[in-house]
Amino acid sequence: MKKSFLVSFFVTLIFSFRFIFAIADWTVLVYANADNDLPEFLEDDLVEMFDAVDFAGDSSRVNILVQGDWPPFGWHTADWYPYSSDYYVFNFWLSGWIGWSHPSSDLGSFQYRIYHDGFGAYIDYPNIISKMGHNVVEELVDGMQWAVSNYPAQHYMLVLWGHSRGIQDPSHSDWVRSPRSILFDDTQETYMNNQQMIQALSRIKTTVMEGRKIDILGMDACFPSGIEMAYQIRDYADFFVSNEASGPAYGWDYYEVLYAMLENYMSPVQVANYIVSTFQEFYRDYLGYEFYTHAATDLSKIDPIIQNLNEVVSYIDEFRNLNLIEINDFRITSAVTLSRFYAQEFQLVYFIDLYTFYSDLSENLANYPKTAQNPSDELGPHSRRPIWPEPDRIRRRKFARRVTEGEEKVAILRKALTEGMTLIEDAVIANVHGTEFPRAKGLSGYFPKDEIHFSYPLTEFAQNCSWYDFLQYYVPKV
After folding, report:
1. Distances 200 to 101, 137, 382 between C-alpha atoms, Å
2. pLDDT above 90 covers what percent of the chain?
3. pLDDT tens-digit profile of 290-299?
4. Looking at the structure, do residues 199 and 261 belong to the same domain, yes or no?
5. Are residues 121 and 68 in the same domain?
């Protein structure tokens, strides 16, 4: 009996030490700016997180953290149906302590941990930090430092939550109506632009993560899932999860995602895939909503896409500048503009799906007439003829050689476009879309119809890739 008691005691002790000193599978930080028109949706997401912990009955696998900013006053929390006593505790912290319905919420921004203590789900007494929106780089770095230092784990996921307008940054002269970048703060009239995002992620990698990449960088926001965004974050995260189109206000299905992570170990690629699949299940199957896209991208495969894109632009330039300049320019310009016109667009029409643009461009190049039909078309309809024309047989021979050269260039360009589509399919590991965006493949590209926004040339992508040169030539023609 004594021996049996000692065995039970040591087994219990071992499991207790394992519980106390075990490192979690994941630390998830949802970095949210709801100091705008989104606080009720952040509230919904917090409830989903709380539910996941409550029903899982254990939070040891996943550290669930939220750093949030709220409107200073005048916003009233919605009524919840408190079907368990745990909801009263949760509702007390949110409505009572933070005080969304009175100005005390202007004390600052808040950091929460949602956890299970073995008896029920709780939210930690929130840390009050300085109001977010004053120094967006420092605030994000400090938030990630809080998460990593206090809640170490095998894997880390950072979710930027709030308004976004993808790669395009706003103009301060037209603040309210302007397109936003991400983490838009109405009170401070600030946001995180693309250069600040790179600064923050670079510092997180070097000082917080000690040279390691974030496993998953998510953006629960509108429009970030583009080649430009993927390019500028590729050195700081392994996987990227977000929307090509406008993100529905209810955002991710945090309950399903976190519940699955709490129940079983999930690798980064499994989590990324599951975020995307549950997104579709929530909007298509539960809400019957079809205006959505969602994708997960392997950022280690972005550089080959960029190399291919530069080759595509180079081949387009080569074809346009062959001897049959006027005819070739008309042909390639017609193919580009037609492909742009029919490409998969989203709610902000200056974003198109990159894969479908490649596909349409290849098809349109194949379907257009050959470079010219006879030697008289060689110089174009408005070109001056030489004073001393060459004999017809020589002209025909040169003409045939130039037409052949042009078709060879078209074949090379179409091959590059096909390779680009294959690279995109390989990089996008999960992709879903509603019926309103039937051709969305996971990565958009910036291609406006009227003018290039002043902020685009400032992006790392525009400065290092030839796509910007392509846009400068073809946007005025569109």
Report:
1. 32, 5, 55
2. 56
3. 999 999 999 9
4. yes
5. yes
